[in-house]
Amino acid sequence: MASRAIQHAIEGAEDNRELGVNDLKALALNEKDVVVGIAASGRTPYVIAGLEYARTLGCRTVGISCNPGSARSKGRRSLPSRPLSAPKW
């Protein structure tokens, strides 16, 4: 599972749409679940595919992105969130 990437880098996992869907399939989600996707750019394939899959199951979805101009920040989620972030140093 890509969730290992939280503690150890897994090169390229964020670009793998299939992995995003497969990781969620392993959780046996249903319409009572809420799935939160976090992608600084708002367009990370792993996250976007996971959110799209979750919506096909009737899950509520939340997307968190630091890019207000991304396509995913324009109403494509059940509940969009765009936190303001400080510039990178």
From TrEMBL:
Q: Which residues form the SIS domain?
A: 1-89
* SUPFAM superfamilies xref list: SIS domain
Please report a single Pfam family linked to this protein.
GKRP_SIS_N
Keyword list (alphabetical) reads: Carbohydrate metabolism, Lyase
Native species: Citrobacter koseri
GO BP terms: namely: amino sugar catabolic process; peptidoglycan turnover
Q: Which PROSITE patterns match?
A: SIS
What is the protein name for this chain? N-acetylmuramic acid-6-phosphate etherase
Q: Name one GO molecular function term.
A: carbohydrate derivative binding
Provide the residue span(s) of the region labelled Disordered: 68-89
Q: What is its EC number?
A: 4.2.1.126
Q: What class of enzyme is it?
A: lyase
InterPro entries noted in UniProt:
MURQ/GCKR, SIS_dom, SIS_dom_sf
